[in-house]
Each structure stands twice: as structure tokens, then as C-alpha cells.
Write a structure and sequence with these properties.
By secondary structure, this protein is of the alpha+beta class. It has a 9-stranded mixed β-barrel. Strands 2-4-3 form a 3-stranded antiparallel β-sheet. It is globular, with a radius of gyration of 27 Å. The N and C termini lie far apart (about 125 Å).
């Protein structure tokens, strides 16, 4: 009888274990807690502002050796191993002749090396390929998957000169200050360093972010440009075209999403049209990293949208004022030199 009683107790225990939501007392494998609080505990801790959003404030750099478009040597390889990355980084250093090759096109044009020209002390491109999700990337472009810019739309108009376009779109004209590139005139930074999208360039790749519930300010080291992103606001009328466009942001969970339209035609990114829309995403993934993503959507200029992604890494500040000497005193020399060449050719 005692054995029958014990057997019944055992059967009841098994049935209780199989019932939904029941856990036998003393079980060695309790049902996992799948509550949101438990899931969030596994995520890296990130600083937050008093209103609960991720704190993006601080000084950041996007300097990297990763090129905009994927090199042919890495075709079909969006990422590389650390060993492959180290080899690429080593080769980049070995072929850098900015300080030594007097006959290079750059040094011949600037009178360098070392005298009156940029040198490696001045340049700050970083020393590594960009690392995202633990692996190093071979291009900033992640979509299209081949890491290349999409084809231009048939009949897309040629862009005017701007900070991101350089002299290839400025017509190499020296007739007037207004015919020179905006970056040469120190109106905005070159190479789309101020954005959008905010690309890494030859030097001055630092940014300082200040954040409030109503706005996010990004101070750009190059030419000390300032972007003001209005939170939960409405875009201004298309007639109000700003150098860096009209940027409006909102939060999607822990990601700041910024949409920019109404960019001044003299500074539209890579030959974009008046209808270009650039959507940026800022996501703080840990205490020292913001993952930055930007999508360029412009059917009038490109056959498909394309997307860039790379990290902004925390760096020590402060961001010092950048005095753009070209526009401060060299413009008179540039135009004066052109007049002298014209006189000599007569």
C-alpha cells in the first residue's frame, strides 16, 4: 500500500510538471524569464538623457581607411578577416608617399612635400578599416550589395559646384570668387564632411553633439559647420534651401531618425536633384560607438536608393576652431595668379 501511495504521488508530480505555466518546486531547469526586462538586461548599457532616449552627446570621429565604394580586390567581400584587414592597412601605409614623393601630382600642385602643403602630420584618415558588428568593412556603401554607387538615371542633370563636388563640377573657372568651390571659399567643408551624409574626409573628422528634447546640434570640426536637427518638427517650404538642407528628426525606439530635404542646389550630394531625400539613422550601440547609417533616395538622379553605414567612435575633445586659411587669404592669390597667367599668355 505504501508503494502504491508513493507511485500515485510520483504520477501527480509528473502531471503537474506537464501542465502549462507550472514549475515543480526545486526544479533544476526553471522556465526562462522572457519578460522585456530580462531581454534588455543582456544588451550593452548605454547612457541615456533624462527623457529616456539614448544620449548621443560627446565628441566623435568617423575617420577610417574604408573607402566609399568597394575596391575591386574585395569584390563580393563586404567584410574581411582581421588578418586581411591588417594587410590592407599595412599596404595603405606603405604606399602613402605624401611626405616623400616630390613628383606626385598632389605635391607638384601644392609645392610640397613639407613646404606650404599638406603632409601626414596634417592628414587624419585614421589607421584602420571601419569595424561594424565585430568585423571590418570593405566599403562604406552597404546597399547596393556590391558596395558601389548605383547607376545614374538617364538624363540626370549635372550638379553645380559645391563643398562635396570639388572642381570637377565647378568648371575650373577662375573668373570670380563665386565660381570657385564652396569649400575653397570656406563656406562649408569639402567632401560632404558636414553632410548629409556626413562622410569621413582627409582630415578634421571630429564632431561634437549636443542634445535636448527639442533639437540635436552637431558641430563639425571642418570649417566649424553646424547642423541643427529639429525634433518632431515639420519641414520648411521647398523655397527655403539651406547649405546643409532642412533636417527634421524623430525617435524610433533607441534610434534617432533624421530626414533631410531642401538642400541648396550648390551643395547637393554627388549630383543629386532638388527632390533628393537623405535619411540618417543614429544608434548608440555601446558607450563608445554610434552606428551611423544614411540612405540617399533620389529617383531623378539615381536608378535606386543607396545606403552607407559606418561607426562614429568616441574620442577626446575639445573640438577646436578650424581656421580655413584658403578662404581667409588665399582667394586673392588664387584669382590674382589666374589674372597673371592670362596676361602672360597674351
Amino acid at each position: 500500500m505504501n508503494y502504491r501511495f508513493l507511485a500515485n504521488i510520483w504520477v501527480l508530480a509528473v502531471i503537474a510538471a506537464l501542465l502549462p505555466g507550472q514549475t515543480p518546486t526545486g526544479s533544476a531547469s526553471p522556465t526562462p524569464n522572457t519578460s522585456p526586462a530580462k531581454k534588455n538586461a543582456a544588451k550593452p548599457s548605454i547612457p541615456r538623457t533624462p527623457d529616456g532616449h539614448p544620449d548621443l552627446q560627446g565628441v566623435w570621429t568617423n575617420a577610417t581607411l574604408t573607402p566609399l565604394a568597394r575596391p575591386d580586390k574585395f569584390a563580393a567581400k563586404p567584410t574581411v578577416s582581421d588578418a586581411e584587414a591588417s594587410e590592407f592597412e599595412k599596404q595603405d601605409k606603405e604606399v602613402n608617399t605624401l611626405d616623400s614623393d616630390v613628383s606626385s601630382n598632389f605635391n607638384r600642385a601644392t609645392g610640397g612635400p613639407g613646404v606650404g602643403a599638406y603632409n601626414n602630420l596634417f592628414v587624419d584618415r585614421g589607421s584602420e578599416l571601419a569595424r561594424v558588428d565585430g568585423v571590418k568593412r570593405t566599403s562604406l556603401i552597404i546597399d547596393p550589395p556590391d558596395g558601389k554607387m548605383p547607376a545614374r538615371t538617364a538624363g540626370a542633370p549635372r550638379a553645380q559646384g559645391g563643398g562635396g563636388q570639388g572642381e570637377q563640377f565647378a568648371g575650373m573657372s577662375y573668373d570670380s570668387v563665386k565660381r570657385r568651390p564652396l569649400s575653397e571659399r570656406c563656406l562649408i567643408g569639402f567632401g560632404s564632411t558636414s553632410g548629409p551624409p556626413m562622410l569621413p574626409v582627409l582630415y578634421n573628422n571630429n564632431y561634437e553633439i549636443v542634445q535636448t528634447p527639442d533639437a540635436v546640434m552637431i558641430l563639425v570640426e571642418m570649417v566649424h559647420d553646424v547642423r541643427v536637427i529639429r525634433i518632431n518638427a515639420q519641414h520648411g517650404p521647398p523655397a527655403l534651401q539651406k547649405w546643409l538642407g532642412d533636417s527634421v528628426g524623430h525617435w524610433e525606439g533607441d534610434t534617432l531618425v533624421v530626414e533631410t530635404v531642401n538642400v541648396n542646389p550648390k551643395n547637393r550630394f554627388r549630383g543629386s536633384s532638388e527632390n533628393v531625400k537623405i535619411t540618417e539613422r543614429f544608434r548608440r550601440v555601446d558607450a563608445s560607438t554610434i552606428l551611423y547609417r544614411a540612405t540617399i533616395d533620389d529617383p531623378a538622379a539615381y536608378t535606386k536608393p543607396w545606403t552607407l553605414e559606418y561607426p562614429f567612435l568616441a574620442t577626446s575633445g575639445p573640438v577646436y576652431e578650424y581656421a580655413c586659411h584658403e578662404g581667409n587669404y588665399a582667394m586673392q592669390d588664387i584669382l590674382g595668379g589666374a589674372r597673371k597667367q592670362e596676361a602672360a599668355s597674351k
